[in-house]
Amino acid sequence: KSSLYRYTLMLTVGLSAVVLLTLSWPRLRASLNYLPVDTAISNYWKTRQIDNAQLDGLIKKAEESIAIYNHYRYQAGLSELKILSGQDMSRSLWQRRQALEDSISAAEKVVQRAPAKPRVWLRIARAKEFLAYPTAEILPAFKMSILTGRVEPTLMLSRLELGLRQLSVMDEEAIRLLRDQALLTWATQKRLMQKRIESGHVNINQLRELLAESNPDVVREMDGGGE
Question: What is residue 226's predicted lDDT score, i.e. its pLDDT?
Fold first, then answer.
C-alpha cells in the first residue's frame, strides 16, 4: 500500500512537472528569442544611436517573439523599433509612414493590456500627430500619458511641446492637464524649459495664452528668464 502511494505521488509530481514545462516553454522560448531586441533597445536609450541596417532583423525578432508568446512587452519593443524605422531617412516616405502606422498599432495593443504606460501613450500621440491624424484621435493618448504618469521627468517637456502645438483645438480637460503639466515642468525643470523656450521648441506665446489668466506670476517669471 505504501509503495503504491509513493508510486502514485511520483507519477503525479512527474506529470505536473511535464505540464508546467510544456506551458512555460513558449514563454521561455519567446524570451530567449527577444534578447537581442531587449539589448538593442537598452543600448539605444543609453546612446541614442542604433544601427539602421539591423532594424529589419530586430523587428523580425520581435515579431517572432510575439508569434511564439504574445506578451505586451514584445509589442512595446516592436513599437519602439517601428518608430526608429519611421525615422530612418534612407527609407521611402511610404515605408516610413507605414512603420509609424505599425508602431501605433503595436503600442495600442500594449495599452489595451497594460494601460499604465505613459511613455507608450505619448508615443501613440506623437506618431499620430506626425501622421496628421485629426486632433480628436491625438488628444485621448495625450491625456492618458499625463493621467498615467503626471510626474515623469523624461516625458514632461515632450508632452508640453506636443500639447502647445495642439492648444488651439483642445477641449477643456486637455487644457487643464496641459496647464498643470506646464506649471509642473517649470517648477521641476526650469533651466531646461527655459532653454527650450529660447530655442523656440516651446512657444512662449502659447505658454502666455495658456497661463496668463490663471498664473500671471509664472508668466512674468518666464518672461524674466526664469530668475
Answer: 45
